[in-house]
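re: ur question from the group chat, yeah i did fold both. here u go
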Amino acid sequence: MQLNELETPALILDRLAMDRNIARLRDRLAGFDVALRPHVKTNKSADVARRIGAPGSPITVSTLKEAEYFFEHGWADILYAVGIAANKFAHVADLVQRGARMTVVLDNVETARALAAFCRSTELTIPVLIEIDTDGHRSGVPPEAPLLLEIAAQLGKSEAAGGAWLSGVMTHAGDSYNCPSTADIEKVAELERAGAVRAAQRLRAADYPAPVVSVGSTPTAHFARSFDGVTEVRAGVYVFFDLVMHGLGVCEQSDIALSVLCSVIGHQQEKGWIITDGGWMAMSRDRGTSGQKVDQGYGVVCDQAGIPLPGLIMQQANQEHGIIVHRDDTSLTPMLPVGTLLRILPNHACSTAAQHDGYHVVAGSSQIEAYWPRISGW
């Protein structure tokens, strides 16, 4: 099948670009004594994940539905990297009892105490990472906070002791997404590394071995100067990249492997609008570039081959309609013929991919070589 035979909108994945992105981070981390635990929340597809690492290699997930899906496809070493809630204990237990090695994350005494009690009552052994806040971006415990040791006191010191045991610490440098330069990303990366390592040192001084020090974001994974003291790096969107990553200087637009194919269905010529059948249900509502130096609207417009059309962005989006204009002057918008196929590069690959059931895979051409399904939901 060719692209022009698809119903639009449709999600397009360029396998060649994706493979280059995967190789880039793998080769970079090979120079450090650190493991990669890729975050599969971006792709949510076993077909994509196999390009990153063979089933059985460690992965990170953001939902227990992802954990179920990837476990069923052969991945058993799974970090559930969202703070665990008591209403999910039974689901985690079921995965563990079926053979998964599930690691969970928490950042408060109440959940640690509840999980420890649950593991005692069910005779389960579950490793736990305490989430560390190194940049004030989201959740987690500051590295020097007394709370760190208060949480640790609720957990076992080693796997041999059984139950909920303290495996180490993890952090996510979310503030790297707000950096104006690569130099700033480097600084955030060092805060991420140093904060996580310091937290682990405090735990070890209190007689908790804490073997795992897990850090990660796509920007810091690519620009950190040191991973001293770190055992694993997590990253997810690097597999596809997107316009936010381009705006941060992490990738070129030509590295973006994901796009949404849509059709020109009409015009509002007096307004300088091209109307397409790809609205926010196809692109998502994510406007992640709006705070960057260049606002890309809902996405950069490319021709059917994936080559950007100068100046064109999706400026507005309704549920099933996209409005394309010239970013500088709507009078310069070319009235592309009805039926023209366009590919829109996304602001945020995770949220755009989440709008679709699967990937139509190409390899630098209009020939579709495969369809790779993906999952959604919780």
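okk and heres the other one u asked abt
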Amino acid sequence: MSGGPLVSVEALAPALARGVVLVDCRFSLADAGAGERAWREAHLPGAVHADLDRDLSDHRQPAALGRHPLPAAGDFCARLARWGISPDTEVVAYDAGDGAMAAARFWWLMRLLGHARVAVLDGGLAAWTAQGLPLESKLPSPAPARYEGAFDLRQVVGTDEVLARLSGSPGWLVDARAGERFRGEVEPLDPVAGHIPGAVNRPYTANLAQGRFKPAEVLAAEFGELLAGRSPETLVLSCGSGVTACHHALAMAQAGLPGARLYAPSWSGWTSDRGRPVATGA
């Protein structure tokens, strides 16, 4: 495979014979159990399942850390080991289609560990089945591996830093939610509608065309406009709970613009304190 953050169906299919570990990350916010049920019914050959709530989040954490708080690195490494993943394993994550629920989150957590050989299947299960490639219902029994590591928390932004940057020029914070949620017209998940002052809106769906990521050069041009001459390291990514913001991190890596950091608590963590400022409108 190419070694980039995305892999095509055409490149993945022949690579399965050399021991690539597949991780099915399908998840639905409307039905938390739907992703695992779908995996049990049919999945790419040998794929294990990573559940957003159980495996990619730690709900023991306080509300200030958002609806999907980051898992502890030790817990996440233990899960990787049970799935047969070690630090040198080649791993490909996929979900139902566009990577947002929650293959990009898995990819980003792996990159926090410094795991280099990880990618997301562009187009996910939908792209795989569109090519007529096989699925299976047999549940895998991977041989346990060993994984020890720590998250590079320099890539994660806390609320204190966001508060400190509120007086800066707008545009340093990019919100990946749908436009109507950003503007505060609707809010189906969190107690307050709107966005963090100074944020700009780029819905994660802007990274896609017909269910696949846009070409790298197109993504580079579009994120280049957002950066307006700034370094990618100055950008902070946010969303509702730190999940779809990972889609922007993946898209920027594909565009050759790595380095943006994630405000992991995102809007759900921000609004856990009703005294924090809220903006509405475009």
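fwiw on the second one: The radius of gyration is 18 Å. The chain has a mean pLDDT of 97. idk if thats what u expected
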